[in-house]
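User: I'll paste a sequence; please echo it back and then give the predicted structure.

Assistant: Echoing your sequence first, then the prediction.
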Amino acid sequence: MDNRQSILKEQVAALPLAPGVYQFLDRSGDIIYVGKAKSLRKRVSSYFVRNKDHSAKVRVLVRQIAEIRHIVVDSEQDALLLENSLIKTHQPRYNILLKDDKTYPWIVLRRENFPRVESTRIVRHDGSQYFGPYGSLSMQHSILEFIREVIPLRTCKLNLSPQAIARGRYGVCLQYHLGNCKGPCVGAQSEEEYAELVEMVKDVLKGDLRPVRRYLEENMRAAAEELKFELAQRFKQRLDALENYRSRSVIVSAKIVDCDIFSLLEDDDAAYCNFIRLRHGSIVALHTVKLATGIGAPQPEMLTLAIQYIVENISHDLSREVIVPFLPSTTLLFDKVNFTVPKRGEKADLLEFSLKSARIYRAEQMKNLEIKNPERHTERLMNAMQRELHLDRQPRHIECFDNSNLQGTNPVASCVVFRDGKPSRKEYRHFNIKTVVGPDDFASMREIVYRRYSRLLEEGAELPDLIIVDGGKGQLSSAYEVLCALGIEKRVPIVGLAKRIEEIFFPDDPMPYYLSRTGEPLKVVCHIRDEAHRFGITFHRLKRSNAFIKSELENIEGIGAKSLAQLLRKFRTVAKVREATAEELAEVVGEARAKKIIEYFKPLDNAETSKNESTEDI
């Protein structure tokens, strides 16, 4: 036992059995992990149990620990709060960390005389009211446009204090003449009347359009009764704008009035938590945060951290009902909140909609990463595939085999090559099956794998990092036998991919293995399999077509291999050869052979003509 291990053993033995928070430090004195525990000694000692099945991240973490610190607290809840605070302060690399550095658009009601409604990306604690954040700038712009079209508030930046208005130095602007502002700058509108309009803006931003509708309808009727038809028409236009906005907003259900929805999508080294706020049956806010998963991070803990972050920085409160895919790790931090885990119905549909939004956000993040930093994207993808498929190295070079035949006729096979997760089409290869008679996929697989890798070994060429066989245990066993015969079974890993439900099979393992349904490795593997199938089918169809053409034209007396090749090169199909004139045929194969081709197809043409004539008579 080295000196570091003996020191750590002493530190673990000295830990109390009380609840608290522990910190792991590396040789540089940096905090690399913070955790909480009901019993500090029991929890920390579990990291150093040799026979325990730790993940790769945990094993790497343990090798870097140089010092252990701890803080004792009174309860598990206090430990949770302290852990959260320390993680935010120190940002340890092996903890769950929020990666959301994007600034989202908000709508702000300024704290001032005659408040303005504006767009902002900066939230300040200045007494103003902030609504959002909005998932996209277009969503925020459409809401602001609607408010300014329907509710007449000022847009100027004048100081409208009572003293400034009393000086009488301001004059009305164009917005006043257009009817979009009632002129508070010249005292034409009281603060009380303006405050009523501001309350309606708040209702709209909270998703409740009913007060605005009542206001517009009452003013339209009053204007009509006073015979002010132009003013009544203006209110009518605003009512139409209200209906148009309502049709564009996301209406969920009259049964579900107010609730918040959280979904969690876990990826290889990150997780995405989507938040949706539902008010009066309409979605009024949507937001997604990204988290680094850390080590051994259960989903309930990630969900708890994401909800805490969203409450503290975005929503500032929670609805009485919160819909989640599973219960968070603790509900003690959220007072008077009822967490619901729906299995079916409209609430389950809302949860699925939230999860779909998280998937879209993740796809956008992946696409941006691929565009901005393709090397980093490739490295992350290769690491994920290595981890998911239990490989000893990154699968930078992958080859996939697929057989294709029609009841044993024209058997062919294909080999596609992927480099860094992308097709390398110049390296694709077709194989004509030479030694197998009849529909025997296993024997065909043995033949093409042997031909491929015996040739690579003879040429001293590079072997792949991974071989994928399109098929189940039978095709995999056939290919693996060949690798063993060539003596490369330990140099090149091989897996089989079943066609129906994407089951992965490993040699000498009868049980299938399932890749994560949401991870990128499964998408890449299925893409490789589909590409091998497409490439093989295309070649098989071409071979069948050529076989038919050759068998048809070879029946003509005097047409040999050379004449056949010339005809195919010129006319491509039997139908075009048959439709060609004697002059066109003579240009290719000469007059004598052209005459024989015309005579060969003439009986067929006569038979079809007779058939058509008899049909017309009927």
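The mean pLDDT is 79. The chain has 20 helices and 20 strands.
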